[in-house]
Amino acid sequence: MMKSLTIDAAKCTGCLQCELACSFEHEGVFNPAKSRVKVFVLHDTGRYIPYTCTQCSDAWCASVCPVEAIESDRETGVKRVIDSRCVGCKVCTIACPFGTINYNAASGKVVKCDLCGGEPACADACPTGAITFVDAEWTGYGRMKAWAGRTDTAAQAQG
Amino acid sequence: MQHVIIGAGPAGVTAAEHLRRLDPAAGVSMVAGEAGLPYARMAIPYLLSGRIGEAGTMIRRDPGHYEELGIRVLCGRARKVDAAGHTVILDDGRKLRYDRLLVATGSSPSAPAVEGLDRPGVHTCWTLEDARRIVAAAQTGSRVVLMGVGFVSCIIMQGLVARGSGLTVIAGSSGRMVRSMMDETAGGMIRRWCEARGVRVLSGDRAVAVEDGPAVRMESGETLPCELVVVATGVKPNVEFLDGTGVTVEQGILVDARMRSTVPGIYAAGDCAQGPDFGSRSRSVHAIQPAAVEQGRVAAFNMAGRDLAYRGGIPMNVLDTLGLIATSIGRWQGAGDGTWVEDGDAYRYMRLEFEDDRVIGAINVGRTDHIGVIRGLIEGRVPLGVWKDRLRADPNRVAEAYVAATR
After folding, report:
1. Fold designation for A55-112
2. Touching check for A75 and chain B: CB below 8 Å?
3. Does residue B72 sit in helix, strand or coil?
4. pLDDT value at position B162?
5. Nearest CA of chain B to the CA of A43: how many Å?
């Protein structure tokens, strides 16, 4: 089942629970600096924007990797760094135009959101629903309904 | 339809895979200049530092990958191309007929004007074979002299130092490090960082000859006895075999946005190609991994009869010099409207260059978070609005600016 992280920045209160949860899930410590989701705090407008990899279909990170260390999961669409292959060359960190894959000097490898293997800790931790993990089938059904509505109208117009 | 690709680096491999997918009935042959499976030169510094073995340098992990896809991999080097006869002639006399030819031959080290580079103990650092020789020669306590202070020199220092070698680097008359990618401030930081880690950086002097020993004789008269000399003073594109074809070569093989050379049926991609720049009519050799992969993809689409235009390349590099990470991207030299902040003691530096309402280039030292947004800002031509003044006051807010301007 395809699911994707959906971010509704208007609901974000800047509590940073997502950053702590991400850091704990992946690194075993509560350290926002090690989080793969980052809440940008825009003081001038009072906005909070949670920000992480969208698992985009371009996957610049995967296509530029010289040693095939970033794999795209055919079922879930997740782009995952395979630590045992990553040499730490960092070329993905400048090639990703979203800046959502970063070098971790402690491990000598790059890190990015991997949707926690299907249960994103950030979405679980978010108390306001600003980060949700949405069933892509549901959005697909929504699209189908909209399409069915259009074809119905077309059929009626012809009839 | 016969597609022939000369070269098995990232551009060649990417093109071969796309051609197979786009044109299932066609023959796809890839000529590799070195024995063994295609490997990534980008991984060599990590082989030198002992972090990975040779298996870790392979472009594709599965040894059966090419065979499974029906990509024929031949080992050989192109000696000549008969453009009228649509034939590539390899150095062993084999002939390959093509309907579409992709030249993805990359580049090779260019030798500096120094005598005695053919002596034992002198190596370039470009191929897997070079790396094997350097690993064998750089033993604990051995003294290494590194000629050149470009990207390759800086990125292999970790490997040379990790092997316990005393390291002397010859920086040339100016002493500027990585001058094609870094400005004076960033280059100066990299130099101080190296010196603080025990690397001797020589400037205002140049190597004249390598003598027996080996030992490097400098113009000043100083002699540097050592066990190993590594030459990394730049590269030149591999294009000699195209002489007589009519293919126009300037700094590289001149190609248009569809990776077509000036001769019909012949395409080029990667380090040997001089392709369109982003946002300009000029064409440059972008000898970087992202451009190689993208150009390989674009070439394959057009060779397979699909129309796909390259949107133009921008320079982008990330350099790790003994653990100091520096990036440069776009037109960092600027167009007269730039800003920077610098903390020399902390080895931190951020320079941003603007044109009108947009970012056109940047240099950074010491930062690794969200650095990719700079590419996003440049290639997305993101209008900065109120963020331009904020960035002028503090260019380190670049990720915040990107998120605010695009979300």
Report:
1. Alpha-Beta Plaits (3.30.70)
2. no
3. strand
4. 83
5. 10
Please report the pLDDT score of residue B284 as a whole number.
Answer: 97
- State the average pLDDT over residues B229-233: 96
Residue A34 CA to residue B80 CA, distance in Å, equals: 53
SS3 letters across B270-330? HHHEEEEECCCCCEECCCCHHHHHHHHHHHHHHHCCCCCCCCCECCEEEEEECCEEEEEEE
ipTM comes to 0.95
A residues 112-151 lying closer than 8 A (beta carbon) to B: none
Test B373 with A97 for CB contact under 8 angstroms: yes
Asked if the model's pLDDT at residue A151 lies above 50, the reply is no
Tell me what pLDDT residue B16 has.
98
pLDDT tens digits for B132-144? 999 998 887 889 9
Domain boundaries B122-231, CATH class: alpha beta
Say what the pLDDT of residue A137 is. Answer: 60
Please write the tens of the pLDDT for every residue from B29-66: 999 999 999 999 999 999 999 999 999 999 999 999 99
Report how far apart, in Å, the C-alpha atoms of A8 and of each of A5, A49, A52, A132, B362 are.
Answer: 10, 8, 13, 8, 31
**Beta carbons of A102 and B400 less than 8 Å apart:** no
Whether B59 sits inside 8 A of A91 (CB atoms) is: no
User: Are the Cβ atoms of B325 and A103 closer than 8 angstroms?
Assistant: yes
**Nearest Cβ partner for A94 among B52, B375, B407:** B375
Q: In chain A, which residue's Cα lies nearest the Cα of B10? A: A66
Contact B371 A105 (CB under 8 A): no
- Tell me the CATH number of domain A1-52+116-151, given options 2.70.70.10, 3.90.226.10, 3.30.70.20, 3.40.50.300: 3.30.70.20
Domain B2-108+235-303 is classified in which CATH homologous superfamily?
Answer: FAD/NAD(P)-binding domain (3.50.50.60)
